[in-house]
Amino acid sequence: MKRKVGTAMVLGAGIAGIRAALDLAEVGYGVTLVEREPHIGGILSQLDYQFPSDHCGMCRMLPLVQRDAASQHCLRRGLFHENIEILLSSEVTAIEGEPGKFRVTLRQQPSWVDPGRCVGCGRCVPVCPVEVRDDFNAGLSTRKAIFLPVPHTFPNAYAIDATACTRCGACAAVCPTGAIRMPEAERKKFRILVVDDELVVRDSLKEWLEEEGFTVAMAASGTEALAALEAGAFHLMLLDIKMPGMDGVEVLERAKGLAPELAVVMMTAYATVETAVDAMKIGAMDYLIKPFEVDGLLPKVIQVYQRLEAAEARQIEAGAVVLCGGTAFYDPSTGKNTFGYRSQANVLTQVEFERLLSGTGPTGGRLLRPSDGRPARRIAWLQCVGSRDAQLDADFCSNICCMASIKEALLAKERAGGDLEAAIFFMDMRTCGKAFQRFRDAAEQQHGVRFERARAHSVVPTADGMLRIRWTEPAGACHE
Fold it and tell me: Residue 143's closest CA among 153, 152, 155, 134?
């Protein structure tokens, strides 16, 4: 084992975090790699191919030094290095100290599945009665409440989605190794106070939350709520903003004086969102706009519950802290949504299309239209959606989208056996990398990908279930 020359902590186990952890570990540093999700890999774990070679992008992340001595395991199947400790489902709550001697406080969410006992047999999945959106497949398929966070990881312990699980115990009953435990008794200890002047709201919330196993008390006014807080301890308060007499903001201020650690979620129907945001500034955790469904409420309740259920805070000393926070994607359904995203099943983002192409995706890699399951024969890629757009205050270029679209067009034609028309509508083709322009030229000249310099402005459905694109050329001519 290599002698450790120091310690470092890397926050975020996406590809940037993995790269940083490997580089530090290879030169002898002891690394603690922290990830709040139950798996490593981040966004790149959803992608099977990377331009310009169309090979796995993870393979390029293997150590660049001492390759003969370094671990050569496939990073898509897991990260193994003698100098790296991985902490999953963990979040940083505090960082103190100075360079060379940081004290980092972590909380790790308890797992209902013991990874040391889980052998990945999968017997738990068929008996689970719950199906929810599969975020790994970008919502194009569903999964059970007990699931594999990443299909190709190894070792591959199952995880339980606490917000979706009904705690029926069916999975625990069939587990051959006793790896699954259901925390029924613990939920009863979690006490929630519902404060609202409308009886129907209080009763509905009480019924929903007690079905989930929590203990619920009710108050019809701010005065009753404060009396309840003085009489007993609560972990969470669901608090209406508009109530006769004492409003919710005043109740919040006084409640925080009585119980500073109390988590508070504001509820509003008539008050403005600005009022709810102001309440968050003085201590509220979040807010909900009435009317809301249990699906909107439960994740917030579970978040507070899991934070309290988490194991005792753990402190780790590190000489350096590297932040690899990841990214988020633009949602095309916001604003005017002239492209019909989410309203038209066959309008996909690039990440969704990548999952459609993947062998571990919703169709097993078959290029089928989400609307009807028929083979796709004509596909268009619209560039600069969410970027280079003054109306969105986004004057930047996203840099990778041109090459990602060319890669996807080539993969799509390959999957379709050449029986597919692929067109890319672009403002400027930015191939900023070694051999990238040759990759683009080959796509057009050898594989027949059509490149159209244009600005697509809308996508509309036709009577036969197809989609029609309307665009404007640089000279001003309009087409569809």
Answer: 134
